[in-house]
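Input record, target 12 of the design panel.
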């Protein structure tokens, strides 16, 4: 975080210099960079403000690349905040305004990929698959774009899994996993491994799923990545519940919660623990876990910045987490 703060101060100085000489193009680029820094700092309102400034300045300067980039940036923020309709609107503007250039196919593929993620969050899986496939079609089948294609394939695996087409999901996941491992992208490989575990659960292959979650857990512990660890433990919770082992499920869910993950994951942890406790008949403890779930959801709602949004629907509408259904 200290490095991001230093970068923010440097970019604020750059913006002040550009303002001093009334350099509109530079002001637009500096504003966009500041928005990106604030996004990484999770200062979303400030990030949205700088993105809006950058778009206005880019229009004045005749800089369509920055204009499209800032539409895309604000779309990503709205997706992160769960404001999906606004995210789609901004990403559509990004796709429409991106200028023709040698890099345009890759840039447009990224925008389409992000649009697919928004549709996935909305539960519109066929629309998401169409966006991911359009992104894949834009990317050349070359080594330089192999990782980007693998990222899109992982997205296709997610949506085909949710559509119940397990064969297609497995095909895309396995392809993506091989690329990520070859290129040393172990964090991305772990996420695909998690999703393959979810696919195994859907097919009733519980022991195979446990093996995949265990591999992710070991990587998370070795890399000291608490969020990944919580995800792996929650996968093991689901497997334990399917095997009827509520006691083991509680132990893993308790460990996942103890890592103090971010609010969305904490809501999953507490609700999973509540379900397992309820199965054991410990209703007071289950109720306490559900109360902590509500607290975490309220944190998510506050981050969304829109009191009409329903974070519970966004978090628990995913059928991967069947055990989280109350």
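The sequence produced for target 12 reads:
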């Amino acid at each position: 975080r200290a490095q991001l703060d230093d970068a923010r101060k440097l970019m604020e100085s750059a913006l002040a210099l550009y303002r001093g000489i009334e350099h509109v193009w530079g002001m637009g680029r500096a504003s966009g960079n500041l928005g990106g820094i604030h996004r990484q700092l999770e200062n979303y309102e400030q990030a949205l403000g700088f993105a809006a400034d950058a778009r206005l300045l880019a229009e004045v300067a005749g800089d369509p690349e920055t204009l499209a980039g800032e539409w895309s940036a604000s779309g990503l923020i709205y997706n992160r905040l769960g404001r999906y309709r606004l995210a789609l609107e901004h990403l559509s503007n990004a796709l429409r305004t991106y200028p023709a250039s040698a890099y345009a196919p890759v840039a447009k593929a990224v925008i389409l990929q992000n649009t697919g993620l928004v549709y996935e969050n909305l539960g519109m899986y066929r629309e998401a698959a169409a966006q991911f496939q359009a992104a894949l079609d834009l990317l050349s089948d070359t080594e330089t774009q192999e990782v980007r294609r693998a990222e899109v394939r992982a997205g296709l695996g997610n949506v085909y899994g949710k559509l119940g087409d397990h064969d297609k999901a497995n095909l895309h996941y396995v392809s993506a996993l091989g690329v990520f491992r070859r290129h040393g992208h172990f964090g991305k490989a772990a996420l695909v491994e998690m999703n393959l575990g979810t696919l195994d659960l859907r097919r009733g292959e519980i022991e195979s799923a446990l093996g995949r979650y265990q591999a992710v857990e070991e990587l998370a512990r070795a890399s000291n990545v608490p969020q990944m660890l919580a995800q792996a433990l929650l996968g093991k919770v689901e497997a334990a519940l399917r095997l009827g082992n509520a006691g083991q499920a509680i132990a893993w869910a308790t460990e996942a919660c103890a890592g103090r993950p971010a609010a969305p994951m904490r809501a999953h942890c507490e609700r999973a623990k509540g379900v397992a406790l309820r199965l054991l008949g410990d209703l007071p403890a289950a109720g306490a876990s559900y109360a902590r779930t509500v607290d975490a959801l309220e944190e998510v709602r506050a981050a969304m910045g829109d009191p009409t949004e329903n974070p519970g629907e966004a978090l628990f509408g995913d059928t991967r987490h069947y055990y989280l259904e109350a």
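Residues 283-304 form the longest helix (22 residues).
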